[in-house]
Amino acid sequence: RSNELWGGRFARGPAEIMERINASIGFDRRLWSQDIAGSQAHARMLAAQGIIPAADADAIVAGLEQVAAEIREGRFTFSTALEDIHMNVEARLKELIGEPAGRLHTARSRNDQVATDFKLWVRDALDRLDGDLRALQAALIDRAEEYAGTVMPGFTHLQTAQPVTFGHHLLAYVEMLGRDRGRVRDARVRLNECPLGSAALAGTPYPIDRAMTAAALGFDRPTANSLDAVSDRDFALEYLSAGAICGVHLSRLAEEIVLWCTSQFRFIRLTDAFTTGSSIMPQKRNPDAAELVRGKAGRVIGSLNALLVMMKGLPLAYSKDMQEDKEPVFEAEETLSLCLAAMTGMVRDLTADPAAMRRAVEAGFPTATDLADWLVRRLGMPFREAHHVTGRIVKAAEERGCGLSDLPLEALQAVEPRITADIFPVLSVEASVASRTSPGGTAPDLVRRAAQAARERFL
Ligand code: ARG
């Protein structure tokens, strides 16, 4: 049996394997509500322009409403022979309303139809991503406020560098996620032009009103070039790029959570709700959710790569390769929403162990820079020289197996005779963080204000 929709020039149906490789209904059925909204807007416009009778448009709109209800309620039978969501919906419409259904595809092609559907879907996905990112920011800001004064080691090279506060560390991620949201917003603005009416590739001779369908579907305007409109998938690439970068941010935080949960660090603890045990080692509490967020970020990067590589060699306009655009996007969307929800859950679940953070921060001479700064400010020493002197003091502390502030004054003076006892206050980690008052710095008061400002900027 040849195809109902283009059977005219075909004597027989496709090979079974042809049907299988060709069909996208297995995944593009997710576009059903966008497809129906697009078709309703199109039918109304056709009638308003006198291209089809108003009664037919009414029948089409009402019939599509019925199709929507069937799909929503799980009563719809999707058919692989009908290839994709567009033909599945149209074929069912024909069963329901008969002849007027045949007028729906006037002045339209599946090429502008699928581009429109997919843009509508990605637009919703961008909005969901923005909301999920916002929820994670809210969790991080809450916790940052709570831990604004909790001192922990800040690292470079994963070696203790200078003391920072846990709140400051958490707010670093709020900034990253804020830029992720900025990318989402930018992508949405660029995406929001309507391809409908570009038809197969060249436009159409019918007197259509593209502004009307664009407005009905919430687009800012119609696309300017019909060839571009049916060939463009950079809106999906932008979604995936923003998603991949976000995935990298989530993965870095996940990695830190994994690290912080180790018995070597013990900076934080996750409750039973966000850990798993081992089937053999009874002592274990594994941060699986964090590991999975870290692992799954790779998938989003993979989706971006898949779509980039798929698009890069395609001549204008539509090629069937482009049917492969959807699965990576759907997959990335599921992964991102799962990972963001899990991360939000973990951030709300974790408790810090300030004592463990303190033990760790004291171990690595984290206030060596503060000591050097004291030499500069009090003795007028050039910083390079102060660095040198401090290095010798650190060496002395290392030899005695103590921290900088535990060194007797004589030991300090043995290295630099001009050092006086009022150096000691700057050697505490509290004094160190409190002194970091330059804008964007880690001083607890600043962190409290930064959390408040982040609330106003982002939530
Ligand atoms: N299922 C197709 C896709 O997802 C719809 C467009 C088909 N167009 C075509 N000329 N065969 O891309």
TrEMBL record:
Matches recorded under PANTHER family: ARGININOSUCCINATE LYASE
Localization of this protein: Cytoplasm
CDD domains documented for this protein: Argininosuccinate_lyase
Gene name linked to the record: argH
Main location group: cytoplasm
Provenance organism: Rhodospirillum centenum (strain ATCC 51521 / SW)
Origin superkingdom: Bacteria
Keywords: Amino-acid biosynthesis, Arginine biosynthesis, Cytoplasm, Lyase
GO biological process, one term: L-arginine biosynthetic process via ornithine
Name of the protein: Argininosuccinate lyase
